[in-house]
Specification:
With 382 residues, the chain is of the alpha+beta class. It is built from 10 helices and 14 strands. Strands 1, 2, 3, 4, 11 and 12 form a 6-stranded mixed sheet that branches. A 3-stranded antiparallel sheet has the order 8-14-13, covered by helices on one side. β9 and β10 form a beta hairpin. The protein is extended. The two termini are 41 Å apart. 17% of the residues are buried.
Length: 382
């Protein structure tokens, strides 16, 4: 009985901390509104001495989704310090207005092509035929296709903003969450992209470095020689002869290309988790089943009513916890999507309980962040 009370107390503390994190994230949320439902494995997570460390996976569903409407708690915003354009910035009037115009023009072109192809299929275009009648039919098809294309293009550009499926989307935190033991030493990789670029000898001449190093006639002479050697290397300057290489070999010198390492971009971080589930009883078997289905469900897209659009999959916010508190000694995660998931039922030799539930399940998850880190985010612990 005492053990049950202890476990219930720890669980309540973890839920309170989780609710408080909701409140601090939104800034305006009343924690009493939440009916947090955490699926966890193993069942003694947080209570066993060696299971104080765990990972909490929070789920954010799309505003356009038809699922989890009753579990939605508050809107989730992206980190303003990210280098990405936020969904709100992407939905700015200028960007969306430009998008509507481009989509309208594309629709006009598509309809023009469609009318022409339909005319060819029914032998109305006069293709392969000659004479006044064929010319007349072709002219009529051209007029119809252009008028139809222009009308549709204008109509699409003017009405796209009113179509619900194309309106700006949002994400909402739901009350369902998953807590799993830490599968191994937490690790993170930060990667930058640099490229080697040749600025060219001419830029070196224009920089004035040669005049800083020496003066007078010798400086002017070196500049002239460098310009001459540069011209000799231009393709076709002297026909097929490689004058530039010949000049380099004969003089024992080579032009300084002024190579520099140029910063280009930041890689999106990715994180892999691997779990081995060995259910000890029916409850843990059911928990494992629900955990797998929850991840599987939220990583997939949803279809629009007309099946012409995909609605983006759910997103995840991941945190390391120790006991009932978020662990600040490890890195934070930006908003992620579940990119890959692999489930293997059984180990080297498959076996199951009497009810058919597997005695071992292995699950691999790969998440990719949606936000590009900056110094400001690193100072926040990412």
């Amino acid at each position: 009985m005492a053990a049950d009370v202890k476990q219930r107390t720890r669980t309540e503390k973890a839920l309170d901390a989780y609710k408080e994190s909701f409140a601090s994230t939104s800034g305006r949320v009343n924690k009493d509104k939440f009916n947090v439902k955490i699926i966890q494995y193993p069942s003694d997570l947080q209570t066993a001495p060696n299971l104080q460390h765990y990972v909490l996976f929070n789920i954010n569903v799309r505003g356009k989704s038809k699922f989890n409407e009753d579990e939605r708690q508050f809107e989730v915003k992206r980190n303003p310090n990210s280098a990405n354009l936020s969904p709100d910035e992407m939905a700015s009037p200028l960007i969306r207005g430009t998008t509507y115009v481009a989509a309208g023009a594309a629709a006009g072109v598509a309809v023009t092509s469609l009318v022409s192809k339909a005319a060819d299929a029914f032998g109305l275009s006069g293709a392969g035929k000659t004479g006044p009648a064929a010319t007349s039919r072709q002219s009529s098809v051209n007029v119809v296709s252009k008028v139809a294309g222009a009308a549709v293009g204008v109509g699409v550009g003017a009405t796209m903003a009113a179509v619900d499926i194309l309106k700006k989307d949002t994400t909402y935190r739901i009350s369902d969450a998953i807590a799993l033991y830490v599968d191994g030493p937490p690790s993170v990789k930060y990667s930058m992209n640099y490229a080697n670029k040749e600025l060219g000898t001419l830029l070196g001449v224009l920089s004035g470095s040669v005049f800083d190093g020496q003066g007078g006639i010798s400086a002017g002479a070196e500049v002239g020689a460098a310009l001459g050697a540069t011209l000799a290397k231009l393709p076709g300057a002297f026909g097929a002869a490689d004058i530039g290489s010949a000049l380099s070999v004969s003089s024992g010198t080579s032009l300084n290309p002024f190579r520099e390492t140029v910063f280009e971009s930041v890689d999106f971080r990715s994180f892999a988790f691997k779990y081995k589930f060995f259910p000890k009883n029916k409850k843990e078997s059911d928990d494992v089943y629900n955990i797998i289905n929850t991840f599987k469900f939220h990583m997939h897209p949803e279809m629009s009513e007309g099946k012409l659009f995909f609605i983006y999959p759910s997103e995840f916010n991941i945190s390391y916890y120790f006991g009932s508190e978020e662990n600040g000694y490890f890195h934070k995660f930006a908003t992620c999507v579940l990119e890959n998931m692999e489930v293997n039922y059984g180990g080297e030799q498959f076996s199951s309980f009497r009810d058919g539930a597997p005695t071992e399940v292995n699950m691999s998850l790969t998440f990719r962040e949606l936000e590009i880190l900056t110094k400001n985010m690193v100072r926040e612990g990412y």
